[in-house]
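Worked example (supplementary).
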Amino acid sequence: MSKEKTPRILKIGILRFDPHDPEDVPHMETFEIEESDGMTLYIVLNEIREHHDNSLKFDFVCRAGICGSCSMLVNGRPTLACRTLTSKLDENITLAPLPLFELIGDLSIYTGKWMRNLNEHLETWIHDKENELEVDKLEEKMEPELADEIYELDRCVECGCCVAGCGTIQMRPEFVGAVGLNKIARYHLDPRDKRTNAEYYELIGDEDGVFGCMTLLGCEDVCPKDLPLQSKIAYLRRMMIKTSMKNN
Amino acid sequence: MKVIYTDVLIIGGGLAGLRVATGVKERGHDAVVLTLVPPKRSHSSAAQGGMQASLANSHMGEGDNEDVHFSDTIKGSDWGADQEVARMFTHCAPKAIRELAHWGVPWSRVQRGDRKAIINAESVTITEKDEAHGLITARDFGGTKKWRTCYTSDGTGHSMLYAMDNKAHEDKIDIHERLEAISLIHEKGRCYGAVARNLMNGELVAYVSKATTIATGGYGRIYSVSTNAIICQGMGQALALESGVATLGNMEAIQFHPTAIVPVGILTTEGCRGDGGLLLDKDGYRFMPDYEPDKKELASRDVVSRRMTEHMRKGKGVKSKYGDHLWLDITILGREHIEKNLREVKEICENFLGIDPAVDWIPVRPTQHYSMGGIRTKYTGESQTLKGLYSCGEAACWDMHGFNRLGGNSVSETVVAGMLVAEYISDFLDSSDSNLEIHTSKIESFVKKEQDKLDALLSKENGEDAYILRRRMEEIMMDKVGIFRNETDLKEAVDELQELLKRSKNIEVFRSKSRAANPALVNAYRTQRMIKVALTCALGAYLRKESRGAHSREDFPKRDDENWLKRTITSWPDENQTMPSVSYEEINISTMEMPPGFRGYGKDLTKHHPMTKVRQDSVDAVVEKLKAEGKDRFEIQDALMPFMDKLPKKYRGINARLGENI
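After joint prediction of all chains, the assembly is encoded as:
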């Protein structure tokens, strides 16, 4: 245990706005919180809600960095709040909701709707009309390394950090983002999904898909799961160019 | 009044709820899923270590089958489980996992040839068969005879949930996000849906349905420290309870997981110990072999949690400002293994503790983890007392876990129960029994009642602070209804919770008066309900004068089959009651396939029921006779406790395994 010393007083500035309150306008509000050992922004925000302002809105679910609910801008950078230790930050901390998503209030955003539209648009499920599921039979075999590679891409938690960190989407709101491209890479890698390259091309072979990316790669910098977004986007782009040349 | 009609209303968008939704949809019925959060953020996603299914692909799983899985589950439950339900479950678990493989879960696979593993702190070589190469592999978990827990690294629940939610997208299931069911609509013992509140704009909506399913998970958050997501507040159980008609089963059966990190209570998977990790005390001494020489760190969860607590009480815990803890050592597994198979654990250690688990020991202690109790159902998932209300997954007491759940059996239950209950609901919908016979004015009265309650909360003055009541409730549960329980503490817990319940009727929502998104209002009404749920647990624990599975009474250390082989049933028939009503449901030994016996931990203290020996003799005689006649294991099982006719026809097939039924 570290030696006792006077705890810091954190100054937490929060961008607040209640869209359901016609009187309200977006404004910053600062709360002072005494730092404790091992304190995370999850603890900070709950303390504010419980002891300072019970109307403060934010989204935590697992509070363990697993579910992807609590993404927000911490000092301007998209990240998961629950696993952000205050000890790693300066005593002045600003928090704001992730941009681009519909605001529910304060730090609470409607990522679910955005992600659902994305998943429906890209049809992020196994497409297989050849094999009937037979639950009594042995499962289809898969190379162990391939299963591991798919899992690697399957680790995305749809937190939206890559969307908030994306330069392209600022100008092109229909852009599927790294989250979308990563999902396509995941299904493309999966032999259980029988979609052809040409079918994938239909989904992402345009400027709202893989050709829209300006390669600023803010996505890779902010991804809390360290997904290999850069290499997957590059791979998809090469594959899509090949496919388009074959098609012509 | 806004009314939405559907065939099946599903409350809860985790694995169980989504599996019911896709199942009824496949049978041609409409479903609406109500969920507090986007389904992919449900607590199912936090399941790390794996899903039990007796595939027997890996070398250490050879010889595994439904019989072994069944026997492990019943022993694990300390004979509290419904054996027919456990049979249905173990029979369908391989089907559920194969279905999920088909839908895209990237299960970790068997690699042919030699590999190194750590077993009992020693490095051993395991040789995998050629023909198993590429099939789903499994790891060791506590309380199991075989390596049966299938996994994707340590993100099993995440992968399963993503595949399941994507399947729901494909099937065009209606999912209504950020909608919270706040009361069940019912009349004359029949459930017709629920009143729900939109958490974004505050609107109340009546969802009217022929069948209603509660799949809202457990109630871990009635404790101050829990591994559960913060949404696991027992609101599904409260919905059932407040109907006054539906009943809850075994609410006192609460599991403590041995290895949550200190102080925040985030889980590190049982896979850590399954893969060879050790528990050490303040001296770096491996203590579990002293207590449980046979299973050591891989005894059942309730046993390991108690042994850890005993050891800390002997002064062997590591002192910290957050209280005593012990160490989990996974350094012996090596960095490569940790970064491949325990990467969530690694991330959690880095982010919340600032340590590297490949080098440092992890501070852990037993923490509230799972609710074996829940909405009491028949094997079909339907409430025993409220027709048209179904429940499955952790929300339910179905009851395959009895008084202690095995690791890896929970995510497995979600998808198995989901697939079965979807069929039973569909059968109900196909019959004329399911017709809606409720007048609009009745629906309206349910909505109005909820609106009035919310108005009263918002207009209350000089009332109680919900946070204060809730924190006190959490402390009471933690301190007095914990791992070891006794009469004095439990009596105090029951009395004080009852007092809190009375005070909670007077809760005021301070300052924050918005009818739209308003966390203070949500906390107010949930606190009132959580206290009721807490009371069912505390009262059940106080009355149960024996020790069984996770319910451990210091003053009654014996399992008492003679008096307590029964389920605690709680209900709340009158809303003015300040204590739940309690009754008991006998568990019949004479029909058991596996009569009560010794679990194999510590000394056998069981006070046996006289019927046990009679039934055991009869089971032994049947087995001996049929074996002599050359009957196979299926025929013998069927003679002891037939269950196949209870299963939907499509799931009665015999499971293929390498070397069996191929």
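Two points are worth noting when inspecting this output. The mean pLDDT of chain B is 97. DSSP finds 18 helices and 24 strands in chain B.
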